[in-house]
Each structure stands twice: as C-alpha cells, then as structure tokens.
Amino acid sequence: MISSLSTGRPPRRAVLYPSWFLAPAFAVLAVFFFLPTVFNFVYAFTDWSAFHNDIRPVGLANVEAVLSNGALLSSLRITIVYAFLVAIMQTGFGLGLALLLERDTRINRFARVVFFIPVLMSALAVGYTFQALLKPDGPVNGFLGALAGQDVTIPWLGSTTWTVVTVAFVNSWKWMGLAMVIFLAGLKTIPADVLEAARIDGAGRWRTFRSVRFPLIAPAVTFNVATALLGSFNGFDTILATTGGGPAQQTEVLDIYIFRVYGNGLFAQATTMSLALLLLVTLLAFPVIGYLRKRERVL
Amino acid sequence: MRISRFVHPAVVLVLAAVVIGIPLWLALVTSAKSQGEANLPDLSLPRVWHLWENYSQAFTQGRVVWGLFGSLLVMVPSVAGVLIFGSLASWVLARRAGRAMAVLYAAAISGIILPPAVVTIVLLLRQLHLASTPIGMMLVYMGMYMSLVIFFVTGFVRTIPVEVEEAARMDGARPLGIFIKVVLPLLRPVIATATIFICLYIWNDVFYAFFVLGGGTYSTLPLNLYSVASSNLYQNNWNLVFAYVVLMSLPLVVVFVIAQRRIISGITGGAVK
Q: Where, if anywhere, are coiled coils annotated (chain A) (predicted)?
C-alpha cells in the first residue's frame, strides 16, 4: 500500500472501494433472483391459479396433489436419471474427442471447429433434427436396417424405458464440443517434462493416461461434470423438441412438468415443482461439487 | 506407426462426417424439399428444389425479422448491464476483505447453482407491471447471470496486482475513474469469456422466454421456432422447421467460424484455472 505512506495513515478500503459499487448488482440480484426464490416458499402453499383472482393459503394441498398423482416422485426420479446420464455421456464424449483431437494438426483443428458447431445451435433446433433422424422409419433405423439386412424399427423416442437415455444422448451430443474444448485446455497445461518422465519410467500410453494425465486434468473433469449436472437439472429445450416429455410422461423432467402445468393455469402446482427443483439442486449439487473438489486434491 | 499416420486423420474425418455431418446434412436437405417430400425426412437430395419458397415462407411465417429484433433487443442490454454492474461489484468484492464481504460474495455466486424461480418471477413481474415486456426479460436475465459474472470477474480481479491501481490513485483519480480507466481494460479476457457464455445462453433460451415474454407482443427467434414447429403437429412442415433451424443457427455459426480461435481461447481463458 504505497499511498498509505504518503498520507501517513492507512487509506480505508471502504473509501477506495466504495460500497455503493455493489448496489446495482445486488439490487438486481435481490429483486429478480432472491425475491422470486423467497416467493417460491410462499406461493407453493397457496391456491394461486389462472381460474380466480384471489390467492389464499392452502397449506400442503399442492404437495399432497403432486404426491398423490405421482408427478413429484416421477419427475424427480427422471430429472436425476437424466442429469446423471448427461453428465456421464457429455464428459465421456468430450474427453474422447479431446484425446482424439489433441495433436495440433490441420485436420484436428478443422474437426474441433466441426464438433463445436452443435454448441452454438439452439437446443430446440438440435432436438428437432434428432426427432427427424430417430423416427421409427427415419434415417438412423434405415442405416441400421441396411447394416443388418432386415427392417429395423427401434422406437428411439417411443420407449417408456430407454427414451430418457436417447434424449440424454442428444443433449450430450449438443454440448460435447464444449466439454472437448475444456479438456483440450486442461491437457495443454500438462508440462512436457512430466510426460517425458513417465515415458522414461517405461509407462505405456494407457498407463500414462491413467496415472499421469487423467489426474492432472481433474479440474477440467470437475468443471465439466458440474456444469453438465447443473445444466441438465434445468434440462428443458432438448426434451421439449425431441419428446415433449413423452412417451407416457417418461421423459417429463421437472422443468417440462412446470411448463405444462403452468400452461394449464395451475400456477401454484408449478411453483411447488419449482420449489422441489430448488431443493433437489441444493441437496445434490453441493455434495457432488464438494466431492469432485476433494477428489481433485487427493489425486 | 507409419500406418497410424493415415489411419488417425481418416478416423477423425469419418467421425466428424457421421456424428456431426449427417444431422446437419439432414437439416440442410430437408429445408430445401417440398412439403410432401419432407414429410418423412431423410438424407436424400431434394427431387424438386423448394429452397426459395421454404426460406421465404419460414421468414414470414416465423416472423424472422421481428424475432431477430426481439432477440437482440433483449440480449444486448442484458449482457451489457450484467457485465457492467457485475464487474463493478466484483472489483469491490475482490479488493475488500472481511466477513461481510465474504457473506455477500457467497450470496452473489449462489445463483450459479440455484435454479431461478421461474414461476414466481412471472408473479413478481406482473406486480411490477413488467410482465411480457422486454425490460422485464432483461432484468430477469441479468438476475440469472449476475452470479456467473461475479464469480468469473472476482476470481480474475484477485489475480491483478493492486499496484496497477496505485499510480492512478496518486494522480488523484477517484474510485470510479480508476475502475473505468485502469481496471476495466485489464478485465478484457474474462469479460470476453463471460460475454460468449451469456450470449450463447440468452440467444438460445426458450424456457425463461416462454414464461416472461409468452403471450406478449415481443418475441425471440427460439420462441418463433417453437411456434413454427408446434404447427408441425397439425400439418407436417419439416421443410419449414428446418429452413427456420438453418436461418436461426447460421448467424452464430458464421460468427464462430470467422472468430473461432479467439472464441475458443476466450472460453478456455476464463473457465479453466
């Protein structure tokens, strides 16, 4: 603190960095982020809807409603399954691509650009493209049929069990380019002499990857898994454009449910689900990120 | 080793062609087909080219100009606002120590993890008479992405030595002057990262736009794509859906291909530290 020498007494930080600089950002956060979140805890327990003007407290009636029709537990389960599937596939694909395209050749640079294009596309656009590709009589089944030599009619988007996997795959396809870029940046930070040392010690390719490179890109793994998880807890667009939540509501994650029920005018029930999402993320995301950070330090 | 020199590039090219090329090809060829031919989208070239008809129809039916206007009207001020307010706050949060600042910082970045309360946001906007307005949408986006900006920028400010501010302070510059003339220019890399991510999210957002803008006069490109595709339920119009998909994706893809090196280094610059 050089200026403190010239004035003879330490400058107060509050003068150098005035508190009012915080005001605009925190005003926006308080009114448009925290206030609605607080409202969540209030309006989930009212009868707010499109059908009458007054809003009255109804206790736990909404919670009971979404519990008794099975929507709460089923949406929660599907959201969790979807989020973990996306996190695994997106990180896996991204890592695979990064390792494949690691060397700085001309073709690899070109391919990196190509694999990044889906990241820029709207998830709706991606979803519609895959809806067309994956129709029972669409190009994917047609190609598989040509390979198998007989008609293939896999209901990619029509299976009550497996469609959630297909939709998670589509979402991972859209975002794997971003994961790839993050991993490429992580791989670049590994010092050459570390790899050289591993080579001299006689480590093969797999051993080097397993024991040297993978641990060193742990921060990139954390970043990718965390963003994929958080992003897909709020998953909406890809599912809307591929299945709309079907078949038989088996891909209806929380945000799709909120959207549908809100559209029906049941605002309080939508709020209840929004609260459920908030609690789910709070309960799951913090421990997962904590775990990944700890792993980073151990490795 | 000799063989792998040819195998590797071949594998890369085939993979790129199959994994990315085929879906994009499907969108492109279908956007040039007649409605009947596009009824069941496949990878074949159009027998009859309907390129101009489809794109002009998607342009009018999907209200592309109005959607583009709405998208830009909402995105540009939100991004500018969240970056200016966010950086200003981050500078103070990074430089001042103490318990109060730590608590404020934790609160400010909690929005990275917590999902926005989308339903009650609508209620709030109605009470403020901002429902279905672009200003309401901007404020909601700013509230949603403020956390991300503060998280990125505060971390970055901490790596800038305080000494660079001292010289300006000796010259008698006031805090706001120091922030604008000294700190803000140094924040360029991290502001680039945040800009790329937030633009990407807002440009492609449909969920929050549904709730905030839905039913109003203003619209965005993704909202219009959804309404074009929703009429697909009643009359198959894959040709129009994909013409719209191409129209909507093209601007970002072109920007990216031109500025790819800077965009990629921008993404990784702020994300991995």
A: none
Task: Check CB contact of A147 with chain B, cutoff 8 Å.
Answer: no
Query: Residue type for A117, please?
Result: I
Enter the tokens of residue B108.
């400010």
Q: Which range of residues forms the domain containing residue A87?
A: 70-298
CA distance A299 to chain B (A): 17
A21 to chain B, any CB pair closer than 8 A? The answer is yes
A133 and A235, same structural domain?
Answer: yes
pLDDT score recorded for residue B221: 93
Based on the fold, state whether residues A80 and A26 are members of the same structural domain. Answer: no
Average pLDDT over residues A12-33: 92
Select the residue from A55, A120, A224 to test the B interface by mutation, using most B Cβ atoms within 10 A: A120
Mean pLDDT for B21-34 is 93
Residue A245 has pLDDT above 60, yes or no: yes
Residue A20 has pLDDT above 50, yes or no: yes
Cα of A230 to nearest chain B Cα, Å = 7
Report yes or no on A163 lying in a domain. yes
Burial of A176 (0-12, 13-18, 19+ CB in 10 A): buried
B103 pLDDT exceeds 70? yes
Q: Per residue in B179-238, pLDDT tens? A: 999 999 999 989 988 998 899 999 999 999 999 998 889 999 999 999 888 886 666 789
Number of separate domains in chain A: 2
For residue A230, give the nearest of B26, B113, B271 by CB distance.
B113
User: Per the CB < 8 Å rule, is B175 touching A19?
Assistant: no
CA dihedral A248, A252, A257, A261 (to 10 degrees): -20
A25 lies in some domain: yes
Comparing CA positions, the residue from A252, A220, A248 lying closest to residue A236 is A252
ipTM of the complex: 0.91
CA triple A58-A62-A64, angle to 5 deg: 110
All residues of chain A having their beta carbon less than 8 Å from the beta carbon of residue B241 are 128
What B160-166 contacts at long range (C-beta under 8 Å, 24+ apart), as own/partner pairs, is B160/B186, B162/A1, B162/B95, B163/A2, B166/A1, B166/A2, B166/A3
Phi, psi of A155 (to 5 degrees): -80, 75
| Residue A237 domain flag | yes
Q: Which residues pair with A57 in a beta bridge?
A: A46
Residue A44 lies in a domain: no
Percent of chain A whose pLDDT exceeds 70: 95
Mean pLDDT calculated for residue range A97-109: 92
Rounded mean pLDDT of chain A?
90
Q: How many CB pairs under 8 A join A and B?
A: 268
> CA neighbours within 13 Å on the CB side: how many for A105?
14
Q: Which domains does chain B have, with CATH numbers?
A: 4-59 (no CATH), 65-235 (1.10.3720.10)
- Judge: B117–A111 Cβ closer than 8 Å, yes or no: no
pTM of this prediction exceeds 0.90? yes
Best of B11, B119, B227, B261 to mutate (most A CBs within 10 Å, chain A): B119
To the nearest whole Å, the CA of B162 is away from the closest chain A CA by: 8
A63: nearest Cα among A37, A44, A42: A44
Instruction: CATH number of the domain at A256, please.
Output: 1.10.3720.10
